[in-house]
Amino acid sequence: MTTFLGMPTAPRGVGHLRQTEPFPVAARRGLANTQLRRNLAKATTAIRAKRAAIVGEVPDWEELREAGRAIKAETMAHLDRYLEQLETQVTAYGGVVHWARDATEANRIVVDLVRGTGAAEVVKVKSMVTDEIGLNEALAQAGIQPYETDLAELIVQLGHDRPSHILVPAIHRNRAEIREIFLREMGDADPGLTADPAALAEAARIHLRRLFLSARVGISGANFAVAETGALCVVESEGNGRMCLTLPETLITVMGIEKVVPAWRDLGVFMQLLPRSSTGERMNPYTSIWTGVTPGDGPQQFHLVLLDNGRTAALADETGRQALHCIRCSACLNVCPVYERAGGHAYGSVYPGPIGAILSPQLTGIEDNASLPYASSLCGACYDVCPVKIDIPSVLVHLRARHVETARDSRRLPRGEAVTMAAASWVMASQGRFTAAQRAAKLGRPLGRRGRIRRLPPPFSGWTSARDMPVPAAMTFREWWQHEHRSEPPHEDGACG
Ligand code: SF4
């Protein structure tokens, strides 16, 4: 066996991971799309409430979160060992394991495997990792038609669109838009189709049934792989995954190397954490687990493609590697004020929201997704809901520091930013200058209406282009203190006014 683990230079991630434009530019488009903002606000509010209620039922939720964190940390500390154990077990049960350094290698492996079967069509169960590597495009280029079978992924594929949410990839579409897409693209949709959810689901069901029954190759991702037994696990809620995983003759699973867990019992922890955090359900509706091949039952060829694509590079960063603990529940997206307003497309990568802001820059190298670690208010809501306790705000700050260091080393730190920081440092280094700056800020009070300033004049106008700001207080903290404690003056040192 040859793996890429322990290589002196870990491969960088390629595929659909890089931003084509900085987050602020793309976010501006999302902010201007009122339909998108309405859809997102409605959907995330509903999911948030459902999750909070169902998590509130579990008295030992914090202990479960800690168990999930500990399992992931242990896995990352010995990833090489667990992956080799997984390969041994999958092979022992009749599967074939392939190692892919990056998206290009993974796509080549999958295309060759499908070609080897002679199939011209494949059915797919929703998989972020195959989105990450651009597998659908690679298959299409090779003359193989991929069919997404998850309802939301089907909507995205038929709409020639991109997913915008981990769990609900078509969250940016409403019913009327979905009806239009089905009528235009499906071919077999009833012309009298309404925008009723049941009617839309039935149209998709009829459309997909022929594909399920005729496909000879199924392609999936994996939520978990158990090193101890070689078992693979896919968690979904529509039953389409079960069809893809059991009906075709050949099953190809593409999995990021971080999805391995040491032991069978570990699934017990994640099966409690994942459905509650993602869909707000006590138990996941369809959980498929298989080990290798079983003669006369299910696919008779099983291939597992283990993908690096920048993951070992992320693993090398002791703070940043937490991003590899992610179980893709999407809870952090649903609570993020930035995601809710800008939408998933603004992140430019297949991984949107807070997790995308820390994962994508580490997979590609910070300079290729440099604006993502700044796409956060650092409010900490993502950390509070994360079922495996990924400290997203700390990783964001860490990545910002890495970006500044990298930019400074290559003398590419933006001039405006460097000048602003130097000026801020100069002002804050002296109590007198800081007090003078606070007095100057109070001159802006007449610009405010009902406690907020909506528009600042240049050169500060960029700050209020997409947000307002509070009117400066009539009294600084120091003035207030002196007023309240006239007989007890505060310490003179310290910059805080
Ligand atoms: S970072 Fe945490 S909350 Fe966000 S998707 Fe991953 S596991 Fe879920």
What does this structure look like?
The protein is of the alpha/beta class. Helix content is 47%, strand content 10%. It is built from 21 helices and twelve strands. The protein has helices at 23-32, 34-55, 61-77, 79-92, 103-117, 128-132, 135-141, 151-158, 175-185, 197-214, 240-246, 266-278, 311-315, 331-335, 337-342, 353-364, 381-385, 392-409, 415-428, 431-442, 477-484, and strands spanning 96-100, 121-124, 145-148, 217-220, 224-226, 231-236, 250-256, 260-261, 286-291, 301-307, 452-453, 469-470. The strands form three sheets. It has a six-stranded parallel sheet, sandwiched between helices. Strands 8-5-6-9 form a four-stranded mixed sheet. A two-stranded antiparallel sheet has the order 11-12. A hairpin with a 4-residue loop joins strand 5 and strand 6. Helix 3 packs across helix 12 (266-278), helix 9 runs parallel beside helix 10 and helix 16 runs parallel beside helix 18. The N and C termini lie far apart (63 Å). Residues 492-497 have low confidence and may be disordered. The structure holds iron/sulfur cluster.
Helix and strand layout, with pairings?
Elements: H1 23-32, H2 34-55, H3 61-77, H4 79-92, E1 96-100, H5 103-117, E2 121-124, H6 128-132, H7 135-141, E3 145-148, H8 151-158, H9 175-185, H10 197-214, E4 217-220, E5 224-226, E6 231-236, H11 240-246, E7 250-256, E8 260-261, H12 266-278, E9 286-291, E10 301-307, H13 311-315, H14 331-335, H15 337-342, H16 353-364, H17 381-385, H18 392-409, H19 415-428, H20 431-442, E11 452-453, E12 469-470, H21 477-484
Parallel strand pairs: 1-10, 2-3, 2-4, 4-7, 5-8, 7-10
Antiparallel strand pairs: 5-6, 6-9, 11-12
